[in-house]
Amino acid sequence: MEDQKSLDIPSEPEKYSKELNIAVRAVQMACSLCQEVQDSLISKTNNQIQSKDDNSPVTVADWSVQAIVSWVLSESFGSENVSIVAEEDVQNLSKADSAGLLETVVRTVNDSLSAAPCFGLEGPRNPLSSSDVLEAISRGNSTGGATGRFWTLDPVDGTLGFVRGDQYAVALALIEDGEVVLGVLGCPNYPMKKEWLNYHHRYHRIISKLTPTTSESWDKGCVLYARKGSGETWMQPLLKKNNKLIWPNSAIQAQVSSIDNPALATFCEPVEKSNSSHSFTAGLAHSVGLRKQPLRVYSMVKYAAIARGDAEIFMKFARTGYKEKIWDHAAGVVIIQEAGGVVTDAGGCPLDFSKGIYLEGLDRGIIACAGAKLHEKILRAVDASWNSSSL
User: Fold this and answer.
1) The pLDDT of residue 212
2) For 17-254, which CATH superfamily applies?
3) How far apart are CA 217 and CA 99, in angstroms?
4) CATH class given for the domain over 262-386
5) Between 319 and 184, where is the model more confident?
6) Same fold for the domain at 17-254 and the one at 262-386?
7) Residues that constitute the known binding site for Mg(2+)
8) Is residue 62 among the annotated active site residues?
9) What residues does Mg(2+) bind to (predicted)?
């Protein structure tokens, strides 16, 4: 993280300040829930892993996070005022043979909400019932659009990383009249300090068990957040167990790297090859003189890496037929932009979040860079390389 400054209280313009405050607290609580479930998944194999229709794994954490974030937003702003475009639905969870799974989700949700006061939030007076939890999850069935206000939520972005004990993210954003106005990105396994990135994530797990949880030398995860037009992106450590969240929880300002020479840049790309062409990005990297090994991480953690200066370029060129979903990008886009970076499609146009659940009209792919000069160089390289590619 380059040129960061530490402040006791980040300045926040009045508009969207309550929404941002509530969203950060909700994501902090969601990350805590995810850590508990991930520890359980890694320690034993159980029925917490299911398959969706597209054969990607979905866990108790996905449904539970969607339920608690939905519930918190509805309690804070009124359910009639809250519309959410979210990844999960209740189809599998409502099946007759999923009673045990639903019971686990309900218990996980209530355990999490019982700790709401630690995050500066008010929990329910009584535990939520199964129907309450299903209703909260179902609130994520909005289809978005060009007018009005809605939230986007990816409860566990990078589920494969999650079940493997690797990187994943909780992504929450607010969109108003088609524009992303705030974003919060929780990265439970992405350490506050850049030097910890040199260690494998499984080594992180060993260190976290050996190091006291109160140690300031080891902050396992972080939450980044930004409000459109503020020119500021902030990062705070995850709340440690049994502590209370004191806003803004040791927040420091995050800024993109100043590197604009491709030869010195680090670029990110998805781990999975199923929805991104590694061969094209590798060829493109070579053509612009990128020398460093790519940073391959699951989920929107790639957006966090660029926003805080750990990497300079994120390129994603989907294979034919794959459609990008708005919840996979909304929070990350505003966080990079307010940290000083640039995010567009491969034609240099802003990403369009006004067309429903997909990023319609996307020109070839998505390019995020630490600065305008570097971004322009990558755009030119894409144009030069595209016709010779097989995409």
Assistant:
1) 46
2) Fructose-1,6-Bisphosphatase, subunit A, domain 1 (3.30.540.10)
3) 43
4) alpha beta
5) 184
6) no
7) 87, 154, 157, 328
8) yes
9) 87, 154, 157, 328
